[in-house]
Queue: 2 jobs
Job 1
Amino acid sequence: MTPTFGLFLVSATSMAEFFYDLIKDTLIVKPCKKSPILLMMIVLLLAMLCGVLISSICLKQINTNTNVKLQDIQVIDKPPHGINPEQLGIPRVHYPEPQTFSRDECVHNPVRFFAILSMQRSGSGWFETLLNSHTNVSSNGEIFSKLERRQNASAIVDTLDQVYNLDWLSSASKNQCSAAVGLKWMLNQGVMAHHEAVSEYFSRRGVSVIFLFRRNLLCRMVSVIANSHDRYAKLLNGTHKSHVHSPEEADILSTYKPSINSTSLIDDLKQVEFTTAKALEYFNSTRHIVLYYEDLIKNRTILKDVQKFLRLPVMELTSRQVKIHKGPLSMHIKNWDDVSKTLNGTIYERFLHTDYR
Ligand SMILES: *[C@@H]1O[C@H](CO)[C@@H](O)[C@H](O)[C@H]1NC(C)=O
Ligand SMILES: *[C@@H]1O[C@H](CO)[C@@H](O)[C@H](O)[C@H]1NC(C)=O
Ligand SMILES: *[C@@H]1O[C@H](CO)[C@@H](O)[C@H](O)[C@H]1NC(C)=O
Ligand SMILES: *[C@@H]1O[C@H](CO)[C@@H](O)[C@H](O)[C@H]1NC(C)=O
Ligand SMILES: *[C@@H]1O[C@H](CO)[C@@H](O)[C@H](O)[C@H]1NC(C)=O
Ligand SMILES: *[C@@H]1O[C@H](CO)[C@@H](O)[C@H](O)[C@H]1NC(C)=O
Ligand SMILES: *[C@@H]1O[C@H](CO)[C@@H](O)[C@H](O)[C@H]1NC(C)=O
């Protein structure tokens, strides 16, 4: 606080006190029969003066306080390195009253709201089946893949309301005894386009965000191209499958070796990184954790962390999905020499040296 401001504060306060005393004295004065209107005018005038003074003092104080607070938040809310659920605060608790059914015996069980924010081919399908293997988790899938549900902010809010009121019925619904309810939402399905409305909604309704990204964006690119190839090639006896449940099916799908456009490769990778960074920035004030597919595969403790993050009773989670690509990445890219030459010596060189697991 600058000395001038301090002086102003003192003098303003004493002036306010002075006026307050004056008002008090005036009020104590017995009703003057001669000119009650004049008296009232004086009181009103003094009150107004007093109000102006006090509010100017308050404004000054609020200004200094907000500055301090913003700085504090920036220090506290640094994006977490790794996961420490205890540091992330407690998720808000809800007791939804669905219109489509009664929660019966679980009516007194609290429910937590979550959203898995991810990108295509980042393991979110697999991750969601793991979550849904929990008796108390209802993750309703990629409901925003339908355009009309994300055409504008109000369509998004209506859809989210249905999900979090437990009125969205899907094969994943655990209905009465859901303790955590949510959905899987790809960043290109309206999250980024309507990020202000979405993050406002998440804060207002206490929705926690689970970010799921892939560390190796080159592996992801192979998967994206292979999956979109299979959309028309339909390698599995004429049906397109994005996720498979047997090693045989995985082998068939992985026989297709995509060739990657090395001209646009660096820009494409940059674009994905940029989108990821933007998403983290847009939701930096929402309660969240950041997961990476590669870490989840190696380390099942992370699944326990996720359950703790959602305050669920911790269970062993299972999925029947099988990985499609295995072995060194060089085996899965047709123009590998081209790609490795392009990335050699760049910040993305590390993507070349990881095997699929
Ligand atoms: C959150 O992101 C906004 C920009 O969207 C930025 O202005 C703000 O400083 C960030 N806050 C923190 C705590 O990182
Ligand atoms: C938002 O989209 C929905 C569904 O497409 C539509 O029915 C509604 O009229 C739209 N509302 C506004 C405000 O544009
Ligand atoms: C989880 O679901 C079971 C029924 O499947 C129920 O008995 C239990 O109370 C639920 N737990 C929570 C924390 O809601
Ligand atoms: C494709 O169809 C053949 C014959 O119907 C069957 O033996 C084979 O298992 C099928 N393969 C897959 C991957 O579904
Ligand atoms: C590869 O990317 C470049 C730059 O974006 C583009 O001009 C070119 O047409 C692309 N090639 C193919 C085969 O898609
Ligand atoms: C697995 O993840 C947990 C945090 O979730 C971490 O504490 C532990 O060190 C990790 N273990 C390995 C082997 O990386
Ligand atoms: C990367 O570039 C260096 C020299 O710039 C070369 O020695 C090395 O063989 C290259 N690696 C690959 C995988 O192309």
Job 2
Amino acid sequence: MGKIRIWLPCYYLFMILVLGFSPCVWCAPASKQTPANANANPTAVPVLASFIYGQLANLTKVFHKDITQVLGFCIDDVDAELFEAFNFAKNLEFLNNCFKETKDVTQRLCNAAEMKFYFSSFLETKSTQKANILRPNRNCNLTSWVPGCEPGWSCSVNKNEKVDLKNAKDMPDRTRDYQPCCEGFFCPKGLTCMMPCPLGAYCPRATLNKTNGLCEPYSYQLPPGKVNHTCGAADRWGSETDGGELFCSPGSYCPTTTKKVICSEGNYCRKGSTAPRGKSS
Ligand SMILES: *[C@@H]1O[C@H](CO)[C@@H](O)[C@H](O)[C@H]1NC(C)=O
Ligand SMILES: *[C@@H]1O[C@H](CO)[C@@H](O)[C@H](O)[C@H]1NC(C)=O
Ligand SMILES: *[C@@H]1O[C@H](CO)[C@@H](O)[C@H](O)[C@H]1NC(C)=O
Ligand SMILES: *[C@@H]1O[C@H](CO)[C@@H](O)[C@H](O)[C@H]1NC(C)=O
């Protein structure tokens, strides 16, 4: 599972590549909409999980050549790596919980335009450290800053509005019903949508450390003067102290993006592990 470690920084590049320069893949046949009823029916979770995975997998198929050409130095097998990073099918608990909590996950997931907006900030700043500073946009700007714009928080679109996840041009209006970002997802500051954390990352809910005012284990603070605001969940894939990456810490493994287990004796767990390894293997 150590590969994921190498893979993730590449994933940023990959998103820029795919979303930044080739938006048209997202406009291809509109037959695959968000699964209907997914919000109302918790048994539809596997459908949504495979939908999210399917979207990412389809993208790599189309861009396989570009990806291997540009990123071949760090990704041996694009399909396998992607499958490893986003194969939520094995453990759907976090999606299930998110359904229960928000009732409308699909209306909170970032569409292609929002993802592109987020990932292109890496390209502009040429640094993952500054990537959490996003430009003003449709939902979060100088004149309007809803609580869902805060790090670790998200909003929903208008009731009954269906988000076209493949739309790479327009961010939807997403300023209703602010709630903390779900466990297993991250919600950047300056955006009101959620993105799933890849496997090998650890994205639990944050708790306030009253000593330093940080929402731990992340490195954001509560907005000043907003007495009713609380810590949400992850705000990005990484903290500055951790080299911009939010991996399961060494000595533990994370079978899902919401669970961290101490490595048992006789095994070893590298940073970003999803399972322990025997010393002999
Ligand atoms: C992925 O591509 C396959 C075959 O082209 C298609 O059947 C499937 O619906 C696509 N999935 C998504 C989520 O776009
Ligand atoms: C600022 O945010 C508000 C509320 O979401 C939106 O109506 C407005 O169009 C945004 N302004 C800009 C310049 O994007
Ligand atoms: C809170 O932050 C302080 C200062 O950084 C640290 O020493 C302390 O261990 C933290 N508390 C918890 C509960 O993590
Ligand atoms: C904060 O919450 C309390 C209790 O729910 C409420 O009475 C108060 O008006 C809220 N304050 C603000 C600034 O929203």
